[in-house]
Amino acid sequence: MIQHHTFDFLKELVENNNREWFQANKERYDAARENVIEFTAELIKLMHKIDPGIDAGLDSKKCVMRIYRDIRFSKNKTPYKNNFGVSIPTRGLKLGGAEYYLHITPDSSFIAGGYWMPEAGHLKSIRQEIDYNGHDLKKIIDEPEFIKLFGKFREQDQLKSVPRDYSTDNENIDLLKLKSFIAQHYLTNKELIKENSAETVAAICSRIYPLNVFLNNAIA
């Protein structure tokens, strides 16, 4: 489970996002990061049973993203993220493709899956799969429980124009215009600090799994 002290650290970081405070609280950061690493290790074991594409031996440390922000090209010069991000890939760390992503931050945590902003080659392949087998994707995203958990899949960011090689009267044009293919569900602090919180997150991911299979099959 995610410990109270992890959320407490992140809450205070929002109010004190500077190097002096961070260095003075480095031990608290290390403890919070270790908590997230341990939680991720537990989640990976559960997720492997749901999605065989996830390596059961995946190093949880490599899944937890850096808290340090790249501020070189950003107007926001605060040096640290106010969250812990966890990326669990389904095709290995360097292959790209569908993944599961856990975002831990006070009062705005969420679990997501799918493929965010696919590279050009993968996007072309996904669109081709939608064109050929859009009914398979619709069966996943229009399932009542999927909509209840993740909302309306089609309401993600779309192209303003029709993508090249497709026409406006294509029956799947609303899906073909998508820039990303993401399912996202918000989690409360209370859900994450429970003893069985990893099981709760894994159960939600089990509903994302068919979407990830569809996307990975498209780019295989």
TrEMBL record:
Pfam families given for it?
DUF2461 (PF09365)
Domain of life, per lineage: Bacteria
Instruction: Identify the taxonomic lineage of the organism of origin.
Output: Bacteria, Pseudomonadati, Bacteroidota, Sphingobacteriia, Sphingobacteriales
Identify this protein by name: TIGR02453 family protein
InterPro entries xrefs? CHP02453, UCP028451
